[in-house]
Amino acid sequence: MNKQVILITGASRGIGRAIAKKLASPESILYLHYGRSAESAEKLQKELAASGVETHLLQADLAKAEEIAKLIPTILEAHGRIDVLVNNAGVTVDKLLMRMSDEDYEEVYRVNQLAAFRLMRDVARPMLKQRSGKIINISSIVGLKGNAGQLNYAATKAALIGMTKSMALELGSRGITVNAVAPGFIETEMTAVLPAEIQEKIREEIPLGRFGKVEEVANLVAFLASPAADYITAQTISVDGGLNR
Ligand code: NAP
Asked: Which strands sit side by side in the sheet containing 84-87, from one edge to the other?
């Protein structure tokens, strides 16, 4: 049987790193994408390689079309297939609407939304040919509920949900599944920057009373990437301690 060829964007840190660890197995070939965090991506690669997993690093600034364009062809050249795409990389540039510049909006749009669209477009053809494939887009509770100070981020995360549903409709007849995962507040560098009193306020609103762990998001992604989820598509599944209800 073919090994499962997997691309995870933003695998250098946080949730992406946890997803890479969870998907790593002797049956998988992992492409770990990173942007600026070369050192931590290399560290992860070494760690996985030591446990016998085939891994490759791919560097690209996802804000740039020409850097994105080389990612999928590199994988196809080496293996002739791609089985799983996890669009995980994301950024925030938080500001209240009145202070948000076009650049603040565009930066978040390019990385969170446009890059995900470009990569989905690039994997569509090989997956259609294979008649199989799984695409998992990491959205957010903020895409479902909105958040003050995150209009740009909320827009991109809501867009990912719309793209997920549309692409699931376009690719479903060939057995390709497309799903979104909507994490709530997860312990990563992205949420560590929130002031302590805001973190406390958020915690009070979470039915399970705590922030989530990166592994808890990775568990769901691994399930969606597995044959156990073959009949699940076009869904947005929350991992948020009960915030979305
Ligand atoms: P993180 O720790 O800030 O990591 C972000 C990742 O995205 C890094 O690997 C980073 O790569 C990559 N990235 C960002 N901008 C990039 C660019 N221009 N080009 C290439 N790579 C870029 O974030 P996280 O908390 O793990 O979040 C991962 C995903 O989950 C994001 O889509 C985020 O929106 C979503 N999410 C997170 C939470 C949360 O509570 N943490 C909640 C809901 C949804 P480099 O460091 O190598 O540049």
From this structure: 54-59, 28-34, 4-8, 84-87, 133-138, 176-183, 236-239
Nearest residue (CA) to ligand 1, atom 9:
10
pLDDT tens by residue, 76-90? 999 999 999 999 999
Does 183 contact ligand 1 (Cβ within 6 A)? yes
Local confidence band at 142 (pLDDT 50, 70, 90 cut-offs):
very high
Atom of ligand 1 nearest to the CA of 185: 40
pLDDT at 1: 73
The whole-angstrom separation of Cα 56 and Cα 20 is 11
pTM: 0.98
